[in-house]
Amino acid sequence: MKYQDTYFFNAQEALKVASQQNRSENGTALQVCYYEGDKIDSDLVNLVHLPVDNLVDNLAVGYYRFPNELNFDGLDLSYEIMSDISQQFKALLKSANKLRQEFNKHYSHLLKNAELDFNEPLRFWLSGHVMTNVHQHITRNIANILESMGYEVLYTLKHGCEANVNLPELVSFNPHAVIEVNYLNSKLFSDDCFHFIWLQDQLSVTSLSYKKKRDYFFHLIKGFSSFLETKGFDSIYQPFCIDTNTYTKRDTIKRENKIVFIGSSYKSFFDEVKNDQKHIICDSLLTYILKHGYIGKNKRTELNSIHNIGIDIGYIINYIERDLILKHIVNLNLDYDIEIYGHGWDNMEWAKPYYKGPLAYGEEISKVYNSAKYGLVIGGYIMQQRTLESSASGAIPLVFDSRESGDDDISLIDESVVFFKKPDNLQNILKLKHNKNLNNIVSKNSYESFVDKIINMINNNT
Known about the structure:
Layout: E1 6-8, H1 11-18, E2 33-35, E3 47-49, H2 55-61, E4 69-71, H3 79-112, E5 123-129, H4 135-148, E6 152-158, H5 167-173, E7 177-181, E8 194-199, E9 215-219, H6 222-230, E10 236-237, E11 256-262, H7 267-272, H8 278-292, H9 297-307, H10 312-330, E12 337-341, E13 355-357, H11 363-370, E14 372-377, H12 385-392, E15 396-400, E16 418-420, H13 426-429, H14 438-444, H15 447-459
Parallel strand pairs: 1-2, 1-4, 2-3, 5-6, 5-7, 7-8, 8-9, 9-10, 11-12, 11-14, 12-13, 14-15, 15-16
Helix pairs in contact: 2-3, 3-5, 4-15, 8-10
């Protein structure tokens, strides 16, 4: 984080800096800009009105991070005065911090010891973060289904200013169940509270060290299940779900003879790999895929023993299975127009003739799939979000065959997708007529079915 959460004594300076929306390198933290003076009419979530007279009390009960820098820009003050104000401000922050600790301790105790009555209509808490490309929409979709079923839902959208969760709000809401993607906050809640954790990104929960009686885990791919097993936790397979209200067939859009790929480039991850043999390894692996198809576990183990690549093998393979397979496909001169959407492709010369820009989550993506005969799905597993988004929008998923990985529940999937083992196979595959039952894969993986699963687990364990 190259900036500091700051208290401004000039409101206009605070507005100027807050408007820059400064974030940490990974995007999770957003600079908080507190300010003195008259309140400014603004929708900026990181611009916080905090007069000095109310500083201690407001910070004590707030849940944004404390300021750790003062800004006197725009004011004509001597060094001595600024120094004196700084010393007094430090004292106020110390008092506020002590009060906040007491405040949080009180509400944490209430939440941890809350009594739950499961004869009441169920209450669910979910949260998301504005900087996540997928996860915030997943949690919001689950919340929408719960609300449509008549349950009470508290949905918290985090912006990156927060030091902790809003404890008073949670105490007041007193949820019967918490549903999270990748994060485990069950220590906050009473033992009676159900906690459902859907693991889609292993890195977010590598510190798992405990499990409560009513903690239930779901895994997106088999590799995450194996990770949970090393922690002593059982889990249930749960692939991505699809929002059938947003992703749907649209009769007003003409379906053309084209293939669309929607997703971001993985080149930035490949660039971060420090192994000085990475280009040699990459060329070798690409040759292997073009000749044999998916790079299985045995081949990965063999490569690691030769080159001692370690975790970087995953980044290299992801780059090949996304960027380099796509590059090879566009050079096949197929009898289909090809369109590429997403981030990171604009600087690649080979992609420029096909690149159409990024798309907003939801309706924009569905409309593009509605305009195409096929949706290209490349990567190391089958039941990706784009597999379902394509199917629900009426485009047949054209899927790189990674069934050997065993990461997916692939029962009945042949009815809904077209597999290709090697990119060159597409020449012949696309000459055939494919009539696929897209409704099968969509209905099996709806958000409604996931929510029904959770409700049944609660009913069967209370």
